[in-house]
Amino acid sequence: MTKAPQVFRCAECGWNTSKWVGRCGECQAWGTVDEAAPARPGTTAAGPVNQSAKPIGSVGLEAARSRPTGVEEFDRALGGGLVQGAVILLAGEPGVGKSTLLLDVTARWAIDAGRALYVTGEESTAQVRLRAERTGALADHLYLAAETDLAAVLTHIDEVKPSLVVLDSVQTVASPSLDNPVGGVNQVREVAASLIRVAKERGIATILVGHVTKDGSIAGPRVLEHLVDVVLHFEGDRNSRLRMVRTVKNRYGPADEVGCFDLSDTGIQSLPDPTGLFLSRHAEPVPGTCITVTVEGRRPLLGEVQALVAPSALNSPRRANSGLDAARVSMVLAVLERRGRVQLSTRDVYTSTVGGARLAEPATDLAVLIAVASAAAQQATPMGMIALGEVGLAGEIRRVAGMQRRLAEAERMGFTSALVPPDSGPVPPGIRAVEVDHVGAALAVVADPASAFPIT
C-alpha cells in the first residue's frame, strides 16, 4: 500500500504544507506548524446520532436563556448573563483586574444561583482568600482549588458539581497526556477542548481566563477563539480606575457591547453611568476644550477633548496627543491649517482627553478641530455645547452613525446646544442644533459663539 504523504498544519490559521517549517507561510506565526494527524478513511455506513432531527419550531429555548450573574455591567457585556453550557474566554493584560472581576462574579453566583468553582493556576488558595476578604467576595457555595493539572481540574468538577466554573488561567493548566510545555499551542488546545466538552455535556457555564501577547491579541492558538461561545476583552489604563469589558464575539447576544467598571482597592464596581469620569468641571468657559459624544458598543458616552497651542522654539513644531488617534489628529490639523487658514506650522499643538478616555472614531473629528481652533484663537466655546461630525480632507463635515442616540445622551446630561453635520435627522427638544457643512462654518462659531447660539 502507498504511504499517505505527511501534512503539516499551522495551529493558528490552518495553513498546510508538505514539510515542516518554523514559521507559518500564511500568518507568519513562529512555532505553530506541527504534523497533522492522518485522515481517517471515509465510510458511507450510517452511524448513531445523539439526537433525532426535529422541526425548528419544536426546539426548546430554555437551554439558550441567560441567567444574570448579579454583576450588572458584566451581564450587559454578555447580553443578559450566563447561558447554561456556554464557554466564555476573557482576555486582558496582566494586572488589569481580571481575577478581581471574576472572583466577584463567582461569589455573587454562589450566593444567588448555585455552586461555583474557582480554579487558579497562578496563585494559592490562601492568596485568593485574602483578595476575597478585601473585596467582600466570600460565599458559602464558592469553592477554591489551586491546580495546574487538567485531570485534577476535571476531578474537582466531578466532586463539586458546580453550575459555574472559572479557570484562571487556561495557559497555566497542562494535560499529562501531552509532552508539550505548559502554555504551548497543543496544551492550550487540549485543555480548552476538554473543558468545553465537559461544559457542553453537563450544562456548566465556564469562564476561561486568557493571556494576551505584547500586541494585545489573545495568546495561544487562534482556534481557541473559534471554539468558545463568547470572547471578551478586559481593557483599562493602569493610571485610571476605569475598566471596560468589550465583547468581541457572542453567540447568545450582541457582539458590540461594552461593560464599564470602577476598580479600586476595595474591589470592582459596575458603572452604569460612567460619563462623569470623562468630563472636567469648569466654573467659566475655558479656551481649548470641546465636548463630544462617542459610542462604545451600543452605549453613548460623553468625552472631553482638550487642546493647547503654544509658540514653538523648534524647527519642527511638536505634535503630541493622549487618548486620541494620532493619524486622525494629524489629518484634522492639516485640514484646519489648509482649509481653515489657522496658522499651526510654527506652533506646538498638544491634544488630550479627560479621564483616560480613548476617542478614536471619526465622529470626534469636529470636536478636535474646534478645540484646537479655540486654543489657537484663545476664544472659549459656549458652555453646554457639544460637537459631532467627521472632517473630510476637502474641509467638509460629514454625518456620523447614531446621531439621535448621541444627542439624546447629551440632552440627558444637561447639554443644550450642538454643532452637527447637515441632514442629521431629528433633534431632541431640549437641544438647539446648528448645522455646519464646512470647516469655515465651524470656525465661525468659535470666533463668534453668541451669533450661533444667541442667549434667549
Overall description:
The chain is an alpha/beta fold. Helix content is 25%, strand content 25%. The chain has 11 helices and 23 strands. It has helices spanning 72-78, 98-112, 125-135, 150-160, 185-202, 223-227, 326-338, 365-377, 403-412, 439-447, 449-452, and strands spanning 8-10, 16-17, 33-35, 66-67, 82-83, 87-92, 116-120, 142-146, 164-168, 205-210, 230-236, 242-250, 258-264, 267-270, 289-296, 299-311, 319-322, 347-353, 385-387, 390-391, 397-398, 417-420, 432-435. The protein has a 9-stranded mixed sheet with strand order 8-7-9-10-6-11-12-13-14, with helices on both faces. Strands 15-16-18-17 form a 4-stranded mixed sheet. It has a 3-stranded antiparallel sheet with strand order 2-1-3, with no helix packed on it. α7 packs across α8 (365-377). It is elongated and about 75 Å long. It starts with 7 loop residues before the first strand and ends with a helix. The model has no long low-confidence stretch (mean pLDDT 88).
Jot down its keywords.
456 residues; alpha/beta; Rossmann fold; four-stranded mixed β-sheet; elongated; nucleotide-binding; zinc ion binding; Ribosomal_Su5_D2-typ_SF
Structural class by sheet pairing and helices: alpha/beta
The share of residues in extended strands comes to 15-25%
Q: What is the level 1 CATH name of the largest domain?
A: Alpha Beta
Mean pLDDT: 88
> What is the architecture of the largest domain at the second tier of CATH?
3-Layer(aba) Sandwich
Binding site for ATP: 92-99
Region (Lon-protease-like): 348-456
Function: Plays a role in repairing double-strand DNA breaks, probably involving stabilizing or processing branched DNA or blocked replication forks.
Motif (RadA KNRFG motif): 249-253
